[in-house]
């Protein structure tokens, strides 16, 4: 009996090491190489430090609505332009959060939105330039549970607001000279991730989210988004673009249930 008692601390220590290994392995695992293969077909990735910036809080206050800003760092003298930006949240259940296609003549240089973050993770922004090359930047975010967090609005309230759009413009001191505009589109939609649980029935709520958004000034493309479950409830995009003189700004959104939502606004007097 004494021999067994003496061995207990050793057994406990060995068990502790055994149980600690999977967690350590999980922390050491880097999903990014696999995501480069799955999302980008293993195309070469160049350092994007001088091309694209990604800004997010290091520690998120609310994992379900984490702000993210993507900003072009290309010099005005650079003949290249950014064609698209793909936002990848490495450890989310569906890592590709969104892909933004930028209008050829809109000169979009900044995009901000809100995302769900499910685990402590690297977040990558991959810019494809007009030269066909990919450039990547990354940041790290401490947040967890964002994809399964309960919706902020109940189902009845969400249904009443489904597809409602608001458009806002923000004054810029340099706008008269450069025609640069800063605008925001907000869409009422639950953007259910498929991982949230109904608090009454204890059943999972099916995924239901905006998966396409197109913004145009007149008939000229400004910005389009292919979205996934990582975009937060009530999708919200704030962005800069250069005006082409069009009087009307248009938005068209589609969701995974086949709904199509459209609206347009007078650029000079944008109604909300």
Protein described:
The chain has 272 residues and is α+β, with helices and mostly antiparallel strands. Helices cover 17% and strands 38% of the residues. It has four helices and 15 strands. A hairpin with a 2-residue loop joins β11 (210-217) and β12. The relative contact order is 0.15. Mean pLDDT is 89; it is low at 1-21.
List the topology elements.
Blueprint: H1 2-28, H2 32-40, E1 45-47, E2 52-55, E3 66-72, E4 82-89, E5 96-102, E6 110-115, E7 121-129, E8 134-141, H3 155-161, E9 165-170, H4 175-178, E10 180-187, E11 210-217, E12 220-227, E13 236-242, E14 248-255, E15 260-266
Parallel strand pairs: 1-8
Antiparallel strand pairs: 2-3, 3-6, 4-5, 4-7, 5-12, 6-13, 7-8, 9-10, 10-13, 11-12, 11-14, 14-15
Question: Based on helices, strands and strand pairing, what is the structural class?
Answer: alpha+beta
Span of the ends, CA to CA:
79 Å
Uncertain segments: 1-21
What does the main sheet amount to? 9 strands, mixed
- Name the beta content range: 35-45%
Shape: globular
Average pLDDT works out at 89
Please write the string of helix (H) and strand (E) elements.
HHEEEEEEEEHEHEEEEEE
Q: Count the helices. How many?
A: 4
The amount of helix comes to 10-25%
Strand order of the largest sheet: 1-8-7-4-5-12-11-14-15
What does the radius of gyration come to?
A: 22 Å
Strand elements, count: 15
